[in-house]
Amino acid sequence: xxxxxxxxxxxxxxxxxxxxxxxxxxxxxxxxxxxxxxxxxxxxxxxxxxxxxxxxxxxxxxxxxxxxxxxxxxxxxxxxxxxxxxxxxxxxxxxxxxxxxxxxxxxxxxxxxxxxxxxxxxxxxxxxxxxxxxxxxxxxxxxxxxxxxxxxxxxxxxxxxxxxxxxxxxxxxxxxxxxxxxxxxxxxxxxxxxxxxxxxxxxxxxxxxxxxxxxxxxxxxxxxxxxxxxxxxxxxxxxxxxxxxxxxxxxxxxx
Length: 255
Prior knowledge:
Elements: H1 3-17, H2 19-39, H3 46-71, H4 73-79, H5 82-87, H6 93-125, H7 132-156, H8 161-176, H9 178-187, H10 192-203, H11 213-217, H12 224-251
């Protein structure tokens, strides 16, 4: 196994051993399975409620885990002083950071795969039709988590875990309110407030471009151009955040 692959696998094993990861995974399984209790309150929109609740809980739980894992990624290495072992090896800092990113995303992919299996099993058990949009919504969520993980790693490259977690949470909420912010800006008269609101819309990632959960709830199809446009948009922001994190991490003095 190459050095990069070994670091990715080590990052995955560390995240898997983390108690929070195990607890969140178990909690997600319980919540997804108990979602059938919520559907007891409705009959006419049973399939919509089951899909909306299942995908919504999956998103919230994985976003929480993403913020927790990414915001303390580098600070934990510095606190435990294991970063000095890494930088003394013939491994570049950029390789180390990318391996940690890949390890986190592998952890999230495994958890997401398990949650998707539970979710689809529920749909089959209650004889609710499974449509491709439900799977696309989960795939889109993975790319949203990639953007958040990259942002978390960027903030943790120069700040502590608390500040990184708060900033990443801010990116999450701002990313999902970006369309509303743009609509408000368009209704304002020309001026500094409109200019600032419009600038914020373009300077922050619009996470709604990767959010296909509303379409999945109403069983609406997602065309290929919309899906790949959202995926490309997410990859672009993840690359931008990661490049900035590498730029800062390469120049950071750990003494």
